[in-house]
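EI: anyone free to look at a 74-residue chain?
SC: sure, send it
EI:
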Amino acid sequence: MSNYPSMTGSRLIRALRKLGFEVIRIKGSHHFLQHKDGRCTVVPLHRGESIGRGLLAQILQDCDITKEELQKKI
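SC: here you go
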């Protein structure tokens, strides 16, 4: 099993913004991000909690991004 970096929701949102994603709406603690080409995902932003590796893997799959690309933008 591969290792995913441990990160908070706000740190992940910052990295996704560097990759061209924009927050299109917020509902509660969930931030909906979309890329110009149509890729989209939802990132939970809970204070003091990091995103689990399973959820991070799903977000990266939704965004069609590898973990190496993400680590370059962190």
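EI: The beta strands are 7-8, 21-27, 30-35, 40-44, 50-51.
SC: 👍
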